[in-house]
Amino acid sequence: MVKAFRLMPHFGASLRNVRITAMTLTASAAAEIDNIVFARNGFVETRVGFALELYLLKGETVETRLALCSMLRDYHALFPDRLSHFLKVDANRLTKVQGEAYIDYYEDKAKSLPSSEPMDTMVVGYPGKRIIDEPTPLSISFSAVGPDPLRPLGGSYICAYFPAAFVAERGYSILLDMTKRWGAMVETLHGGVGYSLLLEHGIFSGGNAADITILPALKRFPGLDFSDPGHFEVESDLRDGLSIKSINWLTVLGDNLVEKLGDTVMLQEQLGSTCPIYPFRGGIVIQAGEEPQLGDVNRGLVLDDYRRVAQALHPVRFEAYRRGLFPLPAPLDPIEETLSWVRRFD
User: CB count, 10 Å around CB of 80?
Assistant: First the structure.
């Protein structure tokens, strides 16, 4: 079976027919996906690719910060010649990557920064290694933050982007294997992996007006996630910090959330055979079907496995938004549009 979608011109996106075979993301289809961008007034605000997000605890500890640096090394090993710039702690200008020295720098910071001081990192691979003011599908960042009276869980996360061409070359298993390995390296709360709209790392959606451009894509293609960990973390941690943003092809649950749902045996019975559960130390990964899917509301392409996962995880979904994920102009209501998106599989 072949699946296709077309992005409409008034969305400011590239006009291409993207065809993905049911079980294989081909190199040609991946190239099409990597060329999809959403632009406004000639400025590219987001693009399509794969995202891996993990939310975690104990971001104030040296052990957690060094584990996050180890994840940077894993990512660097995948793209050793393509990562071009990194952001030093407390800097406002990017520095050129010279081998793995930037990871040594981050590890030194992980050991020397006071636990009360947040540690934020960002590494980017720009095309041609020249800085451009738009999202790139090669980037990774983490924020390691300790608890405070207003945010008792601290609000730490790591987010990595992957071009579709890389996933097509290496296979979906690399996403699953990396998710399980990274999830076991820290005290994981929850997370997700799969197709996503990619934003500029370090910026995300909180400070721009991109969402009026990309909201139609989120409405049409339910398999697309919205990669904005910093903004979501602030919204959720002020409440309980334990609830998930949404589901994706891979949905990660720490042991605390698994306990809220019962146990893995009950959960697997509810999900069925097409949505396997993979354990790791400290949690599980739920896979929604054999491959990531985009779906297409306009063409009636529904995502039954995604829907099964969403229904099973409904009790641990976050909905107590104060501002919403999407800063939108009137008459659109940001909270209403956010809830409409998180409930898209209901």
Answer: 11
Query: Which pair of tokens denotes residue 45?
Result: 């605000």
Q: Residue 261: what residue type? A: L
Q: Residue 196 above 90 pLDDT?
A: yes
Query: What are the two backbone dihedrals, phi and then psi, of residue 330, each rounded to the nearest 5 degrees?
Result: -65, 150
> Which amino acid is present at 87?
L
201 close to 140: Cβ distance less than 8 angstroms: yes
> Helix, strand or coil for residue 5?
strand
Q: Quick check: 328 pLDDT over 60?
A: yes
Backbone angles phi, psi at 223, to 5 degrees: -75, -5
Beta bridge partners of 101: none
For residue range 5-47, what is the model confidence (pLDDT) as tens digits? 333 333 333 334 444 444 568 898 899 899 988 887 778 888 9
- Residue 339 CA, chain-centre distance (Å), reads 18
What is d(CA 303, CA 52) in angstroms, rounded to the nearest whole number?
20
The mean pLDDT of 64-90, rounded to a whole number, is: 97
Distance CA 262, CA 104 (A): 42
The number of helices, as runs of H, and strands, as runs of E, in the chain is 11, 14
* Average pLDDT value over all residues in the chain: 87
